[in-house]
Amino acid sequence: MDFNVKKLASGAGVFFTRAVQFTEEKLGQAEKTELDSQLESLLARGDTTKNWTERIFRQTEILLQPNPSARIEEFLYEKLDKKVPSRITNGEILGHYMHEAARDFGAGGPYGSTLIKVGECQKRLGGAEREFLQTATLTFLTPLRNFLEGDWRTISRERRLLENRRLDLDACKARLKKAKAAEAKAAAEHELRVAQVEFDRQKEVTRLLLEGISSTHVNHLRCLHEFVEAQTIYYAQCHRYMQDLQKELGRFPNMFAGNPSVSLGASVTPPSVEDSPGATVDMLKLEDVRAPAAGTRKAKVLYDYDAADTSELSLLADELITVYTVPGMDPDWLMGEKGNQKGKVPVTYLELLS
C-alpha cells in the first residue's frame, strides 16, 4: 500500500512538473529544446499522411456504401468482432421487383417479357457491384484502416512519450540553472544526464517509426492500383451487361415500332379498348405492330449500337441517319444509310424525325 501511494505521489509530481514546464513555455518564461529539422520534417510528413489517409478512407467508405445507417451497422459488427451479414444490392432488389411485376402483367406480353430481360440484367449488375464492394474493401479499405488503427496509433503513442521526455529534459535544465548549492547542482546535473539519455533514446525510436511512413506509402500505392483494377473490372462488366441488354432489346417486340412519331421517353397513349368484358389494354400482340410508312425519312440515333454481322449497320448516339422500310423485313428493323454505308438497324435505337 505504501509503495502504491509513493508511486502515485511520484507520478503526480512528474505530471505537475511537466504541466509547469509546458505552461511556462507557452508564456515564454522557459526555454524549449527544439527537435532537429529532419525529425520535424518526418513529423510533418506523418501528420500529412495520417490526415489524407483518413479523408480518403472515409470518402471511399461513402462511395462504397452511401447509406450512413448501413455504415454504422457494419462498424458495430466489426467492433464486436462479428461477421458483417451479406447485404443484397439495390440492383438485385430492382431486378427482383421487375420479375415480380412481369409475373403480374403477364410474361408473354411485350412489357412483361421486357421487364424480365431488364430485371435479369439488373440482377447481374447488382451481383457485379457486390463483388466489387467485397474486393475494394479487402484490397483498399482494410489496409488504410490497418494503418490508421495500428501503425499510426503506435506512432502517436511514441510521439506523446517523446514530448514528455522533452518536457522532463527541459525541466531538468531549468532546475540546474536555479540550483545554487554544490550538492543541488550535482543532483540536478545527474538528473539532466539521465533525462538527456531517455530523450535521445525516445527520439530515435520515434524517428525510426516515422521513417516507416515511406513503406506505408509504397503499400498504399499497391493497394491503390488494386482498387483501380477492381473498378476497371466492375465497370467493364456493367458496360458489357448493358450492351448485351441493348442488343437483346433491339430484337425484341416493342410497342414503339408501330408508331414512328413516338420516341423513347415520350408519353405513350394506350390503344383504345372496346367496351366488352374481356377487353384489356394489355392485349398488344406482335401482329399488331406495323413497320414505318414507305419512303425515306431521317432518324436520330439514341444509343450506340454494334452491328452483329455484315447485314447490320453500326450506330453512334446522336448521329442522324436515313431510314426506310423494305418489304418483308422484320417490323422491329429498318434499313439505314449513312454516307456510303447501308444496313439493318433496330427501331428501338432510333427517334424517327418528321
User: Number of helical segments?
Assistant: 7
| Low-pLDDT windows of residues | 5-9, 253-294
Helix content: 55-70%
Gap between N and C termini, in Å? 99 Å
- Adjacency order of strands in the biggest sheet: 4-3-2-1-5
Largest sheet: 5 strands, antiparallel
Strand percentage lies at 5-15%
Give the overall shape, derived from the CA principal axes. elongated
Task: Give structural notes.
Strands 4-3-2-1-5 form a five-stranded antiparallel sheet, with no helix packed on it. With 354 residues, the protein is α+β, with helices and mostly antiparallel strands. It contains seven helices and five strands. A hairpin with an 8-residue loop joins strand 2 (320-324) and strand 3 (333-338). The chain is 62% helix and 7% strand. The protein is elongated. The relative contact order is 0.09.
What order do the helices and strands come in, and which of them pair?
Elements: H1 2-26, H2 37-64, H3 68-79, H4 90-105, H5 110-178, H6 182-211, H7 213-250, E1 297-301, E2 320-324, E3 333-338, E4 341-346, E5 350-352
Antiparallel strand pairs: 1-2, 1-5, 2-3, 3-4
Helix pairs in contact: 1-5, 2-5, 2-6, 4-5, 5-6, 5-7
Characteristics of this structure?
62% helix; 354 residues; 7% strand; 7 helices; five-stranded antiparallel β-sheet; alpha+beta
Question: In summary, what is this structure?
Answer:
The chain is α+β, with helices and mostly antiparallel strands and 354 residues long. 62% of the residues lie in helices and 7% in strands.
